[in-house]
Amino acid sequence: MFIYVLIERYYQMSSIINSYQWRLISWTCCLLILIHFAYKYQSRKEIHNEQLCRLNDNLIQTEATFHRVSRELKQARSKSRSRSRSILLRQRENKSISSFIQHKTQSIDHTQNKDHLTYFIDYNYIYF
Q1: Which pLDDT score is estimated for 86?
Q2: What gap in Å lies between CA 53 and CA 47, rounded to an integer?
Q3: Do the domain assignments include residue 112?
Q4: Which phi and psi angles does 112 have, rounded to 5°?
Q5: Would you place residue 127 in the very low, low, confident or very high pLDDT band (cuts 50, 70, 90)?
Q6: How far is Cα 55 from Cα 40, in angstroms, rounded to an integer?
Q7: Is residue 40 one of the residues assigned to a domain?
Q8: Mean pLDDT calculated for residue range 73-88
Q9: Which residues contact 11 (CB under 8 A, 6 or more apart)?
Q10: Four-residue CA torsion sign, 2, 4, 10, 16
Q11: 127 in a structural domain
Q12: Nearest-angstrom CA–CA distance, 48 and 41
């Protein structure tokens, strides 16, 4: 009977130990799963943070490039305006010079035509 009690106690103890072992194993598995997902989430968060940092750097570079290109475009516009102004001034000067020359030549031609016209009229008048 004593042996029976010992075996029964051993069995109870082993079942108690077994249940504690199973509880311990299950809690350990749950804890490992939680640690795994926490690490995975943390690594995703780190990757996400790295991507955000890269995007921020790219945005800063893009903004700097935009400002540089904007300045270059403004300079090109001002150069183009000054170039077109100088071209317009040259054209106006050429027009004023050419109109002055045309006016002089027309006045010369006009006076010559008057002489010819009066001569022609006088000539025709004589015969009529």
Answers
A1: 83
A2: 10
A3: no
A4: -65, -40
A5: very low
A6: 22
A7: yes
A8: 85
A9: none
A10: negative
A11: no
A12: 10
What type of residue is 54? R
Query: Quick check: 87 pLDDT over 80?
Result: yes
Two tokens, residue 30:
């749950």
Length of the chain: 128
* Domains held by the chain: number: 1
User: The tokens 């009529």 sit on which residue?
Assistant: 128
Alpha-carbon distance of 72 to 64, in angstroms, equals 12
**Quick one: how far is CA 52 from the chain centroid?**
18
C-alpha to C-alpha distance for 44 and 23, rounded to whole angstroms: 31
Q: For residue 110, tell me if it sits in a domain.
A: no
Cα(127)–Cα(1) distance, integer angstroms: 177
Full residue range of the structural domain in which residue 48 is found = 1-98
Q: Which tokens belong to 90?
A: 């040259």
Name the token pair of 71. 């300045």
For residue range 35-65, what is the model confidence (pLDDT) as tens digits? 888 887 777 777 778 888 888 888 888 888 8
Task: Report which of 78, 76, 100, 96 is spatially closest to residue 88, judged by C-alpha positions.
Answer: 96
